[in-house]
Amino acid sequence: MTITDLTSMGEPQADARAEINDRLKRLQDHASDYCYQCAKCTSGCEAHKLLELEPHKIVALLKRGLITELVNSDVIWTCMTCMKCRERCPQQVAPVEILFAAKNLAVQSGKELPGKYTAMLQSILGTGLLQEVQAVATAANTTITRDQLSLPALSVPSDAAKFQASIMAIAMQKP
Amino acid sequence: MSLPMPSQRYALFPGCLMPTEQYAYELSLRASLPLLGIDLVDLPGLSCCGEPMKSVNQTLTLYLSARNLALAEQAHLPFYVPCPQCHLALHETNLILQKNPAMLERINEMLKAEGLHYTGTTTLVHTIDLLHDTIGLDTIKQHVKQPLTGMKLVVHYGCHAIRPKELGRPDDSENPQKIESILKTLGAEPITHYPQKLDCCGAPLLPNKPETALTKTGQKLQAIQDLGASGVVDVCPWCHKMLDSRQTKAGETVAAKLDLPIVYLTQLLGVALGVDKEKLGFSLNLSPVHKLGLRSPP
Amino acid sequence: MRKIGVFICHCGINIAQNVDVDALTDYARTLPNVAVADHYKYMCSDNGARLIKDSIKKHSLDIVVIAACSPRMHETFFRDKLTEGGANPYRLEIVNIREQCSWVHQDRATATEKAKALVRSGVGKAQHDEPLTPSTIPVIPEALVIGAGIAGIQASLDLANDGFKVHLVDHDPSIGGHMAQLDKTFPTLDCAACILTPKMAEVANHKNIELLTYSHVQSVDGSIGNYTVKIQQKPRYVDTTKCTGCGDCAAACRLKNHVPSEFDQGMGNRSAVYMPFPQAVPLKYTIDPTKCLYLSRGKCGDEPLCKKACAQDAIQFDQKEEILERKVGAIIVATGYDLLDPTALYELGYDQHKDVITTLELERLISSSGPTKGEILRPSNQQKPKSATFILCVGSRDETQCTWCCRIGCMTALKQIYLLCEKLPDIEINLCYQDVRSYGKGYEEFYRKVRGQQTNLFRGRPSEVRQKTDHLTMDIYDTTTNKLYEIQSDLVVLVPAMVPRQDTTNTARLLRLTLSGDGFFLEAHPKLRPMDTFVAGVFIAGCCQGPKDIQDTVAQASGAASRAATILSKKELEIDPMIAMVDEDACTGCGICVDICPYDARTINEKNRIAEVNAALCTGCGGCVAACPSNASIHKNFTKKQLLNQIDDIM
Q1: A95 and A27 housed in the same domain
Q2: Smallest Cβ distance to B96: which of A27, A51, A100?
Q3: Which of C472, C499, C526 represents a domain boundary (last residue)?
Q4: How far apart are CA A90 and CA A82, in angstroms?
Q5: Contact A131 B160 (CB under 8 A)
Q6: Domain containing B261 — which CATH number?
Q7: Contact C538, C329 (CB under 8 A)
Q8: Given CB atoms, is B100 within the 8 Å cutoff of chain C?
Q9: Residues of chain C positioned with their CB less than 8 A from the CB of B196
Q10: Where are the beta strands (DSSP E) in C293-447?
């Protein structure tokens, strides 16, 4: 490779790029190569104005092979998964899916999960659901929880141990 | 005049947020749908669909969705999925595993540990297409007892119920009108177009950027309030959580006085079908739903 | 005793790289009846041609086998060389050792063995090639031109000036096509009407042109040199021999100003009886039967006001359609284009907001003979816009809509920007582009001029257009400054994709034309034969073949006229003799060949109950040969014996 990004001194990582592209093609049948940087995705991005996410730039970084920069950036966690970029792209590129792939790679490379993601994951491991039954506020300023309403029992994995083991096994594997 | 209806059985897929927090959705759908011939079956053994985990590990999402689909397969039932995020997760999992034999094999290998097997035969509906396409507007109209006359409501579709169109979603991505059609059938006068109709509520950012999430909610609600709508109808527990349960906080975040009634479509459906308000979870709406003037049957 | 010559081409390294041409030539010499075998670098070159001709003369060759590229490339050329050398041109076998051998195999040994097998089978077939003589058909020196936009007009004038009679058909009441709707043309800013109407007038007055407007081609039978065309002339309900084009009928019409005008793209209205535009050719009125109260409901008040107003008594409600029959030798299709309905990109608001319009709609506003007499007024409130935003590539270069570039979009937008600035000096103009394709002569200069005019250029595509109180708003990310901008605009102009006309599939069916993947008519070769089609005698010109601007359209139209003239200028045409023939002894007159033939080339002779081949229509497809249960249908120089020998030789 004879290309160097002079801001980061990074070089294109062809293998990592190929891996992401292969995954996108296999799972979603989308290809990043065809992006012509029209920026329609960024023009309509729900997260752009508040969090400065630029989906077209994410695609450009992928095309250039600057995967480390992509994976290490904080901005990839700002995607709202509104799917407008995937919906409206004239070249059928899906920046939202590239972002999912980048986030997965970040986790795989040992980056710490931001915000409540770890707690959510722990909860799934423990109970099968994202969170425990909540006591919620009512309009009358009281609180109420599921058991106090005439609703059936919560459905959870029947064999918690086997469920947990399966989840743990996946966490060990590559996405 | 009630015509006898063939009963349609669905396994309910509750997801996570509805059964642990957004009780009004569950109460209202259980109270109203049977009146339209829908027989809901509660399956044991279900788990999270995995969609919020897609950022962490997509294989985990595929596994979680696949195991739930496998459970429905075991019960030989289609899934009614009230949450659009769950619906997207399950639907996309079906599509991915259909096209990806290697991944299908991998998932089934892992499912063995829980004694499950996935073949991909489970069909899915969400509230929108269950009401509009499966049950149909004619049937709904026949059962309306208390029309929602004069209600100038606005619909918040959210994102996952309508995008991405290429996968097939319950309604159109750029001009969704199914909920408006249902509301008209229930007697209301929905505002069918407004500039911010397709804007996101912000919920997916709750885990790591809660203030931004609230800002999105506040911005959309402010715009709807400025329109002069009498209330907002939604079909997603996440959207409802933001628009209803967090409306006050959202207002604080964008420095606006927000005072909009937010109701689940199934709550309004129940009222129109003559169900007692108590049974529809209205006591759990934190937004000023009393402004809608909804009545229980005498 | 037949004497066969085998010539092997290297095709540079195209063949020679993968096939051992020396070994192949040596091998050829061992084959039956081969008197001489030779090889050369480029058989299709002057030297190669001379080699073949000289060899024919020197060795008195009867039959020639050439192992080279696909016969589609040079078959005609090589046949000519046989003729020049003194051999019958139909005793030629071309063996494809390029596309079907050297280009598809990597291993030299395998490729060479395969080439040997192919040459062996070619020589085997060649043994039984008979000398054939082409038959001839007379050529009717008249042409049919379908479509009277600038392409059809240009082609008609060229052919008419060559001395051929031209039947020019258009389905609109007037000729002129889309060009007549334009105000100015890029890059010279010529007035479109000023350069078009003289040609339109010339067409109307030309002694060699029969103008058939408000007409459709209903059926086309026959073949090159001899087509029979049925043309349906729709009733105008106006007697054109009496109508003076005065307009009193339209002024009196009860529906005056109530029917959206097609010519004005719905930006203005017309009456039920109408003239599309003031310079229409022919300058005659037409009654729209779908809107006219009398024609659609049987009653127009107490009496139809148009009839009352017409001093010439030209209104004729009982006028019927006419079916005309014409015989021509060549056909040119110049049916033009449509613009994509931008509702397909719903998010840009075309269907929802009155002030979101297309370039063609804006063109009608700009035009001084348009619905606003050239005043630029917002459709929503009839006020002058203080700002206008152009969005390029609406549906173009889009995998979900039209994958192709419309070619004229960038220049059209630049032209309209220039004209808007001229009419409204204080207007703020924004251009949202992805690329600006200003490729033609004088185009870059024009782009530079517009850049120098303080147009706000944004490189990017907006995602949505929304309404805000009394104007439109959109967010656009500009990749040049890396910032998101909110643009507020009184008017939004969309540049839609160019698409084939809706009736293209019907026209294709009528003429047996192929369409390319994008739905436009397919040319015989994109580089070397852009006006020809795969149907002999039918040519295409203008945007119906693919998006292009007016100058390329005119060039292509003249080219198509020249191609047609090549046919029409001959008294008779030679018919390829390698077609079907009937073994009269074997034929039982069962008629299966008649049913099978897709070209209607077979008939059964009433008197002797034997099948006959119409040489002009037969294309040599071989269907009848396969279908005939009595082996009576024979394909000349492709006989069953030859083909079976070929198969044996390959094995």
Answers
A1: yes
A2: A27
A3: C499
A4: 17
A5: no
A6: 3.40.50.11810
A7: no
A8: no
A9: 466
A10: 322-328, 330-333, 337-339, 356-358, 387-394, 428-433
Contact check, Cβ <8 Å, A90/C475? no
Among residues B231, B270, B237, B279, the alpha carbon closest in space to that of B131 is found at B270
Residue B232's domain comprises: 137-292
Contact B55 A100 (CB under 8 A): yes
Residues from chain B that touch C468, judged by Cβ atoms under 8 A, are: 195
Range of the domain at A126: 117-172
Same domain for B158 and B84? no
C-alpha to C-alpha distance for B210 and B221, rounded to whole angstroms: 17
- Rounded Cα distance between C71 and C77, Å, is 10
Question: From B192, which residue of chain C is nearest by alpha-carbon distance?
Answer: C352
Which residues from B are below 8 Å from A51, CB to CB? 209, 212
Q: Does A88 touch chain C (CB under 8 A)?
A: yes
Encoding tokens for residue B99?
């096209």
Range of the domain at C65: 4-126
Angle between helices A14-28 and B101-111 (to 10 degrees): 80
Pairing between β-strand B8-12 and β-strand B79-80 as defined by DSSP bridges: parallel
Residues of B in contact with C467 (CB under 8 A): 195
Considering only CB atoms, which chain B residues are within 8 Å of A77?
Answer: 55, 208-209
Alpha-carbon gap: B207 to the closest alpha carbon of chain C (Å): 26
ipTM of the complex: 0.95
| CA contacts within 13 A on the Cβ side of C386 | 5
The reply to whether residue B17 touches residue A28, judged by beta carbons under 8 angstroms, is no
Mark whether A94 and A132 lie in a shared domain.
no
- For A133-170, what is each residue's pLDDT tens digit? 999 999 999 999 999 998 999 999 999 999 999 999 99
How far is the C-alpha of B180 from the C-alpha of B175, rounded, in Å?
11
- CB of A31 within 8 Å of a chain C CB? The answer is no
**Segment holding C531, helix H or strand E:** none
* Interchain pair A120, B23: CB under 8 A: no
User: The whole model's pTM is what?
Assistant: 0.89
The 10s digit of each residue's pLDDT in C525-576 is 899 999 999 888 999 999 999 999 999 999 999 999 999 999 999 999 988 8
d(CA C520, CA A175): 45
Q: How many domains does chain A have?
A: 2
For residues C189 and C176, give the distance between their C-alpha atoms in angstroms, rounded to a whole number: 18
CA C154 to chain centre: 15
| B165/C contact by beta carbon, under 8 A | no
